[in-house]
Write a structure and sequence with these properties.
Elements lengths: L1 H19 L5 E2 H8 L3 H13 L4 E3 L6 E4 L12 H17 L8 H9 L4 H8 L5 E3 L5 H4 L7 H13 L1 E8 L5 E14 L2 E8 L4 E6 L3 E10 L19
Parallel strand pairs: 4-6
Antiparallel strand pairs: 1-3, 2-3, 5-6, 5-9, 6-7, 7-8
């Protein structure tokens, strides 16, 4: 009986929130009648929703009107794993830029995202910001052959970067030569709008930097790696003027 009662209440709370999202003005009596519950039960449910952060306004005048605060409309946001990883990395980039204009609620957003990940992934997320570097904007010369990398490649790179897994890439060098390599994506460097991967390159047996827009394809590998210190990549980022 307790389980049935709990499910019933959860369903009611969902229905109340859905109805109030319709941007209409409901009387307390009218909403209670629609749901087939008493005013006392509705009042209790409204308080539960408020405790959960749903901003419900109530007018104490005739009819006891209810509505959502007009500026509020996000509600429950569902993200796929790939979308959550992309958002986490975007937040880390913003945090690394240290712009007060965008920092007001980033901590709260990041904590909510982290709550959906496994303990192992959470530990990796903790050090994400330190693995993203911001440099001066790219020169006109570098932008001459720049193009946005394929979305699928970006998604695979983000996931491998977060999980610290090796990837097999097809890479087009500045000369036009194409090679296939297995790399460990240790750090990301932004020289706006060009992204670089600072990686250990198994083909060369040393650290190298790769322009993301020149990576033609990415295939995830099972092997994981341990993070190398940033000092190992000094030569790879020489001249980048990291901020």
């Amino acid at each position: 009986m307790q389980r049935t009662s709990t499910i019933s209440r959860l369903e009611r709370l969902e229905m109340i929130t859905t109805r109030l999202k319709e941007d209409r003005f409901f009387t307390a009596a009218g909403l209670a009648g629609e749901l087939g519950i008493s005013l006392r039960t509705l009042t209790r449910d409204i308080q539960i929703l408020r405790d959960q952060g749903v901003p419900i306004e109530a007018d104490r005048g005739r009819g006891g009107g209810l509505r959502l605060e007009r500026r509020w409309g996000i509600g429950r946001l569902k993200l796929s794993y790939a979308q959550a990883v992309d958002l986490l990395i975007s937040l880390a980039v913003t945090e690394q830029m240290q712009s007060p204009l965008f920092m007001a609620h980033l901590g709260a957003v990041r904590r909510k995202l982290m709550a959906s990940f496994s303990p192992d992934t959470k530990s990796k997320v903790e050090g994400l910001k330190e693995r993203i570097l911001i440099a001066k904007s790219a020169s006109a010369l570098l932008l001459a052959d720049f193009s946005n990398p394929p979305r699928d490649s970006v998604t695979k790179l983000h996931q491998a970067f977060l999980q610290m897994q090796e990837i097999r890439i097809t890479y087009r060098a500045e000369s036009g030569a194409v090679t296939r390599r297995v790399i460990q994506p240790h750090y990301l460097l932004l020289s706006y709008p060009i992204w670089y991967v600072l990686a250990w390159d198994h083909l060369r047996g040393e650290v190298r930097s790769f322009r993301c827009d020149r990576i033609a394809g990415i295939a995830a590998q099972e092997a994981e790696f341990r993070l190398r210190p940033l000092s190992d990549f000094t030569a790879a980022i020489k001249g980048a003027q990291v901020i």
